[in-house]
Structures are given as C-alpha cells and as structure tokens.
Amino acid sequence: MEQQQSKNEVMKLLTEHVERNIVKVGKKYYRQKTGIPQEREHAERFLQIMYEGNEDYGISIKKDKTLTNFTCRIGETEVPRLPSQTSFPYCGIRISTRDLNITKDFQLKDQRRVRDGLTVEFSKLPGQTFHRKTLK
Predict the structure, then answer these.
(1) Are 31 and 63 in contact (CB under 8 A)?
(2) Where exactly are the structural domains of the chain?
C-alpha cells in the first residue's frame, strides 16, 4: 500500500529531526545545534538502500536527482556531490547546507518549458476539454 505525505508534514518532520535531536554524552543530555544527526555510515547505507530500491516497501529514487554533501560511491557509481557552502533543491525549495535556511528554488522556474504548461478554458464541457488537451 502506497503512503503519501503532504509537503508540510515532510517539512515538519525534517525540521524536528534537524532542530530537536537530543544527544546523550555520559550522564548528560544535550540538544544538537549543528550538523545533521546521523553517522556517515548510516547515511551511506540509507543511500545504498534507496539506490537499490525495495519493491516490498515501494521505495526507490531517481538517481539523476540524487545529491550528497559527502563523497560516496554506490557500486561503480560516484554519487554527485554538492560543493560546500551551497544549497540543494528539494520539492521546489532550496535548503542551505551552511545554515539550513530555506528559499524558493528560482532555478526550477528557468528550466520549465512553455509546452509543459496547460491552458485553461472555460466551457460547458470542462472534463472533455481537459481530456482533449492532455491527449494532444
């Protein structure tokens, strides 16, 4: 069964994961303020699993859209790495690797083609008009 999450739910979970991670050192607990709370080995293993996909769980990734902020090889493939102190695209936004600031991804707008758009017509038969336009 396929699960869907809204963009807001995913962003809330990501924010909670990054901003509210608790680390235990000895007997004391600290809230992590810098870095992403994971070990490199876990990140590499997660990436490998996603690269391979898993039909039982319905997970896969588009390899040409994958970026990392560390050097990583999956089999013979060198995973594209972001330059340091930059931002990466995610769901129409860009997330800064330096301070996790979020901005709108204006580069995405420049890559859209006019023919990928769909005009809207007001008519008595909107369903038929939509069907006709999508099958052009």
Answers:
(1) no
(2) 1-37, 38-134
